[in-house]
Amino acid sequence: MSVAGERHITTSSDGSTTIWVPGLDEHYHSIHGARTESLHVFIEAGFKATSAHPVRVLEVGLGTALNAQLTFETAKELGVDLQYHAIEKFPITPEEAAALREAGMKGALPFLLATHNVPLKFGNSSFTLIVEDLRTFTAENGSYDLIYFDAFAPSAQPELWSDAVFENMYRLLAKGGILTTYCAKGVVKRSMKAAGFEVEALPGPPRKREMTRAWKR
């Protein structure tokens, strides 16, 4: 897994910020609306669908920390405590974080500037950045209630969408847990099913017909 060093901050069609990686020709969030996609795929289909309290979240791909920011904002509104772990092998640099703040992402700054494996406390909630390759990440069985699977697309990083990865994701989820992702490719859903997930197709965010939500029953 590799990410080209060059990254460009850009604005998506709903006015929110994302990043383009020329080396992969991939954006961190949808160019058709970064905030809109995050709310649709991860907050509505994921966070608001779990009955766990507190909610133990694992995010695969912190990126610009938009998902983390929106999750903490939503949790505060709903009075839900969080234990949030985010895996990111190539974290945003302090210079990029400052540029994102100037672009209107001030709320994401604490997550972007977090130190590896040092929890940030927000009342009864916490956030921990894990700087690691997803393929080597491990934790106790049933450690999480919710997984945000927000890696780059399978065409850019196929190694992150493998049978082995989804077997690990299934193991990490508690019974009744949810994995949600923007990706709806058949090969990905087959890997999820092979790992034991119950898979459902949901309407996707703007300009995307479907997304995927998977359950550990």
Provide an overview of this structure.
The protein is α/β, with parallel strands linked by helices. The protein has a single domain, classed as 3-Layer(aba) Sandwich (Rossmann fold). 26% of the residues lie in helices and 27% in strands. It has 6 helices and 11 strands. It has helices at 34-44, 66-78, 94-102, 109-112, 163-172, 186-195, and strands at 8-11, 17-21, 26-27, 55-60, 82-87, 120-122, 125-130, 144-149, 173-181, 198-203, 210-215. The strands form 2 sheets. It has an 8-stranded mixed beta sheet. A 3-stranded antiparallel beta sheet has the order 1-2-3, covered by helices on one side. Helix 1 (34-44) crosses helix 2 and helix 5 (163-172) crosses helix 6 (186-195). It is globular and about 45 Å long. The chain starts with 7 loop residues before the first strand and ends with a strand.
How does the helix and strand content classify structurally?
alpha/beta
Task: State the separation between the terminal residues, measured CA to CA.
Answer: 31 Å
- How many extended strands? 11
Overall, the morphology is: globular
As for the number of domains, it is 1
Order of helices and strands: EEEHEHEHHEEEHEHEE
CATH superfamily: Vaccinia Virus protein VP39
Q: Regions with pLDDT < 50 over 5+ consecutive residues?
A: none
Do you know the CATH topology?
Answer: Rossmann fold
What share of residues are in beta strands? 25-35%
Rounded to an integer in angstroms, the radius of gyration calculated over CA atoms is 16 Å
DSSP summary: helix tally: 6
Averaged pLDDT, please? 94
Helix proportion of residues, in percent? 25-40%
Strand order of the largest sheet: 6-7-5-4-8-9-11-10
Assigned CATH class: Alpha Beta
Indicate the CATH architecture: 3-Layer(aba) Sandwich
